[in-house]
Design goal:
two-stranded antiparallel ribbon, five-stranded antiparallel β-sheet, OB fold (Dihydrolipoamide Acetyltransferase, E2P), mainly beta
Length: 110
Amino acid sequence: MLDFDTFLKTDIRVGRVIRAEPYPEARKPALKVWVDFGPEIGEKKTSAQITKHYSPDNIAGLLVFGVVNFPPRQIGKFMSEFLLLGVPDAKGDIVLLTPEKDVPLGGRMH
């Protein structure tokens, strides 16, 4: 079991997708995604296997959640700086977690 103090160390914030582009070099279909997490955190990038539901055109502007305090991780030739959060649908394809209402960028999940 995870205690609450340990959970609080996970910094989950809301950000807005600034842009995305295909990541054809990835082993599995993926997008490169840049997200603005507001003035405190700024812009971070990641790669995500979300191509079944998202494209560079339909993801731009979307509010999303991400874990922003993991260390950067090399994904192929791309450095991932945060973990984009989602859950699998019935077919196992990722659906991103998004707030139901417009909220300020950088807001921390409680």
